[in-house]
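Q: Can someone sanity-check these two? First one:
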Amino acid sequence: MFTGIIETLGRVKSIEKSGSNLSFWIASNLYNELKIDQSVAHNGVCLTVDQLNSADECYRVTAVDETLKKTNLGNLKEGSLVNLERCMIMNGRLDGHIVQGHVDTTASVKKIEALEGSWLFEFAFDKPEKLMVEKGSVCINGVSLTCFDVHDLGFTVTIIPYTYEHTNFKQFEVGERVNIEFDIIGKYVARLQGL
């Protein structure tokens, strides 16, 4: 389980293909604190550390075909920046919201607007989505945010300078695909309502 508060950025050092899976070697300042079998969210996708490379100070995670189909991880290239968050410790504050690291869908960046001291990002879905509410929580590439101007085909968020500088939002371009995880409470309510 995660909170959607990004700890740091990682950089893709290399990508290996094995059958329908992709393995990513990630260089990060978290390297010395990681161990095999640890869960780390990569752009909001929970992946397991399966190898450590002390010579290059990087680690490897593998995304299976199902994960690649539902996320934007297949679009990563060598040099891509990735938002990273280790799983939460259950004895501290929950600064974001409850995030599972299980991406529900992707959305495309529809608009980016620099405001005075912040950035507005508008996102669009390929098909109608009904699991968001005005001023509710959403996780975009692993970042916990509050959404507004919510409608079935999209929503908007505003990014403060700290988030912009410390996540891969600063590299987003119009048309780019991002990972979306809807709020878990909303998903359970929708299930109970038969939606």
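And here is the second, same format, sequence then tokens:
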Amino acid sequence: MLNRLSQLAALALATSAAALNIILTNDDSWASANIRATYEALKADGHNVLLIGPAVQQSGKGGTFVLPTTNITAPGGEFGTIPVGAPYYGQDLNDSSIRYLNGTPAACAIYGLDIIAPTFFKNQSVDLLVSGPNEGQNNGPFLYALSGTIGAAYTAVGRGIPSIAFSAQNGTHRSYTTNTGLPSDPANLAGRLAANLVAALANGIDTSKERLLPLGVGLSVNLPLFGPTSNCTEPPFTLTRMTGGAVTNKVVIDPSTGFPIYQNVIPKALNTAYNGVPILPGESIVSATCRTAVSVFSIDYDAPSKVAEPVQLQLLPVVGTSKLA
């Protein structure tokens, strides 16, 4: 089962999949190397792609939903791509399919869905939202809630749009103008891996008749450190789960400064496996090697019944009456 996704990806590359209507966003800005390389890779595969990214970097926003209330303020768009005073929403002068919004990643995703997509896709449905690839990994439940890249994806899933969040350990924040154009450029490697997974997901599916993913379900994909400076250039896809080796923060006092700082800790609570397929390895463990972790998530946060029932029974004396003592 762990190699099935890589097999599907290889099969998809050998077949011609129907073009998808895709909204592409991220949290590192509309001008990051990763999002532009992924845009080119998806377009090269024949998909109809609307890129709508934040005007400036919005890392760590999670699912925060903030729409613009001002036009572009100083210092302007990320990497100098938008002048101060420009409208809160605009497009690339050379490619009208590339847009920006002065808002958070989740807001970009839904602005794209509600305001731009009906005209852009000529009233056809949106088949998929792709978010990322993020500049840095987002492994485990703690970063799932923290990441703006994943936040855009799970916000779109909540609106009924199949979504994939991609995060890459190659975390350098860089402009798309620094892309070497070589296949070995980490941004191009990340873009091609993202496009390959989209191809595998869409293989054999007629989106006019069925969804790419079940309602309320998305994918979180974590790419390892890869590229020409490492021994990893083609990390295979591996099915994973979010729990298992996942980290969160603890706070300590820096003895040299006296200020609080955070350190990583791997707590048992964060890695308790209540849902999913227990035999799958944790995405944190898998993406630490030359493998790409693919986790399936649901936005139903309710605890499983066997875990919830004892708590519910304990509370029955108060929740079972309309009068609280």
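A (reply): Looked at the second one. Residues 4-319 form a domain with the Stationary-phase Survival Protein Sure Homolog; Chain: A, fold (CATH 3.40.1210.10). The chain is about 30% helix and 20% strand.
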